[in-house]
Input
Amino acid sequence: MVNRRKGIALMLAWLVIAAGCTKSSDLSGEWKGKITLAQTGSTLPDLAFTLRQDREAVTGRMVFTRIGADLPLEGSCKNGKLSLRSPVKNGLSIAIDGDASTRSIKGVALLNYSSAKIGKKQDRTTIELAR
Output
């Protein structure tokens, strides 16, 4: 009877630890950061992200806070590799690929423009986010 109780206690402890590990790798929440344009070195420092992670699926919004523009995001995070995409909105879409942890996201973002004013253009940037 004692060994059975120990076995049940160990199993419950393992489940609590495993649940904690899953929760600690969750990207859900508010993120702040910047995009740096590779060609010019100019930085757009006013980025705010709200992300929600459900297993590997990640959804959310990216907001350029200074100008109030925002894009919906959809993608995944597996083994610390994040991939997010947005649909075209007001002539802009974004594709983000990077490394993610519970405290930071760093990677590459491709800004794709398609509008009468700008034409078709793509900017390769670096992106850095933190909680």
Observations:
- The chain is about 20% helix and 60% strand.
- The CA atoms of residues 91 and 118 lie 9 Å apart.
- The chain has one domain: 26-130.
